[in-house]
Amino acid sequence: MATTFLSLSSPTLLQPTSPFKGTTTALKPTIRPYPYQKTQFWGTQKRPIVAMTSQSSPAVGVGSLSSVRLRLDNLGPQPGSRKKGKRKGRGESAGQGGVMPLYRRIPKLRGIAGGMRAGLPKFVPVNLKDIAEAGFQEGDEVSLESLKEKGLINPSGRERRLPLKILGDGELTVKLNVKARAFSAAAKEKLEAAGCSLTHLPGRKKWVKPSVAKNLARAEEYFAKKRAAAADQASA
């Protein structure tokens, strides 16, 4: 096997002979037309830093740069990938923002269900027909206590503190002494026609401040004087 030696005086490098019979053009690297990326490693952890060529790098800021390093401050979505949401035509939502809405502050139902005291009873009602059937004799007293003794009413719970009210359903022919807090117009007319004596029991006075009570007394005295003066002028 013939070999060639390297000559110190020759500038060319002689290679040993090879049995390869093909062409060496197929062994040359192919240059691709599309841009490529260069990967560089820095430090001991060897984190890749991607640098794009001028052909594939997008324009950043004013003008195009030859090489742009990708960082957190220049990242962004692709053009056309983010679109504004479509409006449905319902307008902007509105509300009072933290304040109880008016429609929730107004009670919807009357009475206890609506949070009001309009549905609570204020009296223990008794009709004239019930008094007539109870068997009262002429001259007897009809009051809340006598009606309880007769078993005509049996208030319980909150109703035990309620006063008596006479209603006008029915007829009464016996003369009685009726004591109650209130009388309906029909009941008052029928009792007076039957010759009964009516006694309006005073209600529980509402507590007021001493200063308010003093002003109320002054107002009552003032209007009493005016009524007396008007009566004297009418009589004169």
CATH structural class of the domain at 124-200:
Alpha Beta
Overall, the morphology is elongated
Q: Tell me the major beta sheet.
A: 3 strands, parallel
Show unreliable segments: 1-10, 49-66
Output the number of helix runs. Answer: 5
Query: Rg, please?
Result: 55 Å
Helicity, as a percent range:
10-25%
Query: From the helix content, strand content and strand pairing, which structural class follows?
Result: alpha/beta
**Secondary-structure element sequence?**
EEHEHEHEEEHEH
What fraction strand? Answer: 5-15%
**Terminal Cα span:** 167 Å
Mean pLDDT: 76
In short:
Keywords: Ribonucleoprotein, Ribosomal protein. Helices cover 22% and strands 14% of the residues.
What does this structure look like?
The structure is a single chain. The protein has 236 residues and is α/β, with parallel strands linked by helices. Among the domains are: 124-200, Ribosomal Protein L15, Chain: K, domain 2, CATH 3.100.10.10; 205-236. 22% of the residues lie in helices and 14% in strands. It has 5 helices and 8 strands. The strands form 3 sheets. It has a 3-stranded parallel sheet. Strands 4-6-8 form a 3-stranded parallel sheet. A two-stranded antiparallel sheet has the order 1-2. A hairpin with a 4-residue loop joins strand 1 and strand 2. It is elongated and about 155 Å long. The termini are far apart.
Topology:
Blueprint: E1 37-42, E2 47-52, H1 102-105, E3 124-127, H2 128-133, E4 141-142, H3 144-149, E5 164-167, E6 177-180, E7 182-183, H4 185-193, E8 197-200, H5 210-235
Parallel strand pairs: 3-5, 4-6, 5-7, 6-8
Antiparallel strand pairs: 1-2
